[in-house]
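Blinded run. Sample ID left blank on purpose so nobody reads anything into the name before looking at the predicted structure. Input follows.
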Amino acid sequence: MLRIFLLVLALQATPQIHWKSEVKTSSGGNQIVLTGELDEGIDHVTGTVTYMPCEGDACYMPVDWDFEEFIKTAGSAAGVVPELDLETAPASAGQGSVSGDTTLPAAGAGTEGGDLWALILEAILWGFAMLLTPCVFPMVPMTVSFFMKGSETPRQGRLKAFLYGLFIVLLYTVPISLIIGITWIIGGSGVTADIFNWLSTHWLPNIIFFLVFLVFAASFFGAFEITLPSSWTNSADKNSDRKGLAGIFFLALTLVLVSFSCTGPIVGTVLIKSTQGEFWTPMVTMLAFSVAFALPFTILALFPSLLKKLPKSGGWLNSVKVVLGFIEIALGLKFLSTADQTYHWHLLDREVYLAIWIAVFFLLGLYLLGKIRFKNDTPLEYLSVGRLALAIGVFAFVVYLVPGMWGAPLKGISGYLPPMETQDFVLGSGGGGTGVSAVQLENEALPDGMIRIAHNLPAYDNLEDGLAAAKASDKPVFLDFTGYGCVNCREMESRVWSDPEVLRRLREDFVIVALHVDDKTKLPESKWVVNDQGKTLKDVGRVNSYIALHDFGVNAQPNYFLLDGDGRRLAGPRPYNLDIQGFIDFLDSAL
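Blinded prediction complete.
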């Protein structure tokens, strides 16, 4: 059920006007209709309506509409304001704005609910995995035993253990929440979004994250030990001797500090990935991670007999750490790839990325078989069933990756790989040997303002040229808000666009406009845009982000719209959704 909230109604009229609103649904979309009564003698009313559509749990960006109406009365004492149809209200002026139909967006615009749940699940799995690291595992029985022995009754011990877990959750969740909250209070949601956008797309943080992951991987392999200053740990441990809540809090703080060398890179992974989402996503994912991390302490305190079933500490703990080191290298490569894509360096194209992954996971398989040993490893006397199963899984993954070197789509992990158009050689499409990809050669033949995107589809990189081409060819526009570092965009292109029926429609029936919101290419001064806050936007990505939020009310990628040649919206937005038939129906709705 669509709900409309009228946020502001500023009228330049002396008498009181009693307004009411309703939503009318027709084949053309949803309409907001305002009606009202005027006092006698009033024949002219102007004002501004600000309205915000909501559906289900999703609400969208507020929309402003200025109106001016002249009212003619037919012999009656009081005038009646004619219906104000907000569906025909023009969109706000601005670079790339689309005039005409502003039919309210469908539910899900600007949201990626499925992606959020995937991040939450990943955070939970990492939280549980941290229990098996050499920094954390030995502390589980030690801390639980401390609570059981230091309490007068088992009930009191369980209560303290619960509070201990709660403090662990707060120590991980509250700091990131405060940082996000303070930036939002000081600069508003726009500033917070800008910070997250900068973290996820700018070359500097991505290169730093990549290097940090390599450093942590080297630490996991035994090159050196990363620890926080001993004074922090000693101070927290000293205060843990206090009685009451303060002692429990400082004991939790000690665990967080001592386990930093193992949890630090994982916490960083969770946070960095979640900053590519919306305002609440980093807080929610960190909450999920910390709850999973703290849960074993609470459960073991409630059921102390489970302590006897835990495996003993030993060399297997260091093996877990080494395995995490290999995974850190693979994960860190994604940040370097993001910087490479957004700045068009072409240092880490798809086949180079795949080659590194193949080498990393092949070495991981050899390690699991005991063919490689690191500094702190104990000799492997025999191969356990569990270790053999992991090795089989890793080598099977390597075999799965190998065909990607010749252009196999690898749909299962397509979201984590550079786009196919960066690959120099695709089996069956020619190329190779020249050092210049077939795609790059095709790009050179395209006119200005056009690029090649997934599946070798030609697309306009700006809305104005795309609308002009659509009008000339009498075709609708397929508008794609995407990003070079967008995981969900790559999944949609690999798993949905690749369907023959979808690809045929995109190639034959539409003019495609692809607006990358993380493209760092600088614009000439004539194309700079000043946003609503008076800030000048000087690169392609920022202008495209402004168009997405200001003119289409979406702030997540991917989001797809269908427009006619005049820029009127025919359908959309359609966010990330892997339903192929649903996507075909979406395209057909404009045909």
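Unblinding after everyone has recorded impressions. The first strand starts at residue 2 and ends at 11.
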